[in-house]
Amino acid sequence: MTNIAFIGLGNMGGPMAANLVKAGLQVKGFDLVPALQEEAAKNGITIASSAVEAVKDADVVITMLPAGKHVLSVWESIIEATRPSVLLIDCSTIDITSARQAHALAQKLGRLSLDAPVSGGTVGAQAATLTFMVGGNKEAFATGEPVLQKMGKRIVHCGDAGAGQAAKICNNMILGISMIGVAEAFVLAEKLGLSHQALFDVASTSSGSCWALNVNCPVEGPVPTSPANRAFAPGFMTDLMLKDMRLSQEAAAASGSTTPLGAEATQLYSLHSTSGHGSADFSSIINMLRGK
Ligand code: NAD
Fold first, then answer.
1. pTM to 2 decimals?
2. What CATH architecture is 166-289?
3. Where do the domains of the chain lie?
4. Dihedral of CA 30/35/94/142: which sign?
5. CATH class for domain 3-160?
6. Which of 61, 82, 183, 207 could form a disulfide bond with 286, CB atoms 3.0-4.6 angstroms apart?
7. 3-state helix, strand, coil in the chain (%, to 5)
8. Is 22 a catalytic residue?
9. Atom of ligand 1 nearest to the CA of 92
10. Pocket perturbation via mutation, ligand 1, pick of 6, 7, 31, 50 by most ligand atoms within 8 A of CB
């Protein structure tokens, strides 16, 4: 049987670890928050007294933590306690530099490692339908794929160390920009006396079609399941989108890329967040464009 250590049992990590238990794996978990430890224990996860304790007998170690600094500090603290044959997988969304540093830590001791950020949100984490974007060598991917399959439905090997984070950041930059584009079009339509439904019917079947319009439509009505129909309860929070947009801008600066729309969109989400909408769905940015 594969022994898993799972560090970070929050909104995403909690249900992901629970799905590994459901799939018949032995999971030892750790989180700093006692209430999350209790919740995880109810789902069949054995709670360890520390991250180091959790990883001792593990074949695979998974981390699902807020940001790069948390991942590096946990990996630094546990790496020497892991078995030589272990595979370390970080599923958090973090900056590419930290992701590569984490791979280097593992490599120094001869451990296999993957960066494997996800898309699909908490709904995908619960339903085990996440998409994993994976960076790392072929041996690490071949070892990790069967484990990731128990938490997701699509596992894409994007390339070497850091390639998973690169794919995640580029995808979310497209999403952040396209959401604002769709919202601007609806605001313009309102001023021109064009109904929301008419714009939706045309654009969703024309060249304006995209996920931000077809699934996360920022106005009430055309897509009944979109956050606009429930006062912008998320969904995907503005603050998480802002985090990913900032990661895209860090990566752009570090690689010398020009991303003017990415930069502008980052500023707009930042403004939206500081004006009190950080925990609303990011499509609520339409209200800022309306001047509300
Ligand atoms: P979260 O804050 O709910 O969970 C993170 C957990 O890490 C917390 O429970 C925290 O206590 C724990 N933690 C922090 N430092 C720790 C340490 N040293 N040892 C043990 N536990 C520690 O966040 P989340 O929503 O689960 O997101 C996790 C990651 O997944 C983030 O990088 C996020 O950007 C990414 N992500 C989130 C979503 C989403 O919809 N929530 C979607 C895709 C990707």
1. 0.94
2. Orthogonal Bundle (1.10)
3. 3-160, 166-289
4. positive
5. alpha beta
6. 183
7. 55, 15, 30
8. no
9. 32
10. 31
Task: State the distance from the centre of ligand 1 to the C-alpha of 14, rounded, in angstroms.
Answer: 9
Q: How many whole angstroms separate alpha carbon 63 and alpha carbon 115?
A: 10
Query: For 216-255, what is each residue's pLDDT tens digit?
Result: 999 999 999 999 999 999 989 999 999 999 999 999 999 9
159, containing H or E segment: strand 152-159
Q: pLDDT tens-digit profile of 114-137? A: 999 999 888 899 999 999 999 999
Predicted-assembly ipTM surpassing the 0.95 threshold: yes
User: CA-CA distance, 177 to 180, in Å (whole number)?
Assistant: 5
Question: Terminal CA-to-CA distance of the chain, rounded, Å?
Answer: 56
Query: Does the beta carbon of 64 sit less than 6 angstroms from any atom of ligand 1?
Result: yes
Residues 142, 272: Cα–Cα separation, whole Å: 42
How far is 151 from 159, CA to CA, in rounded Å? 20
Look-up of token digits 């079609």:
209
Q: Alpha-carbon distance 158 to 25, whole Å? A: 26
Sequence-separated (6 or more) residues with CB below 8 Å from residue 162 = 96, 99, 100, 103, 115, 135
Greatest distance between any 2 Cα atoms in the chain: 66
For residues 11 and 25, give the distance between their C-alpha atoms in angstroms, rounded to a whole number. 20
Cβ atoms of 101 and 73 closer than 8 Å? no
Q: Does residue 51 have its Cβ closer than 6 Å to ligand 1?
A: yes
The C-alpha atoms of residue 79 and residue 95 are separated, in whole angstroms, by: 20
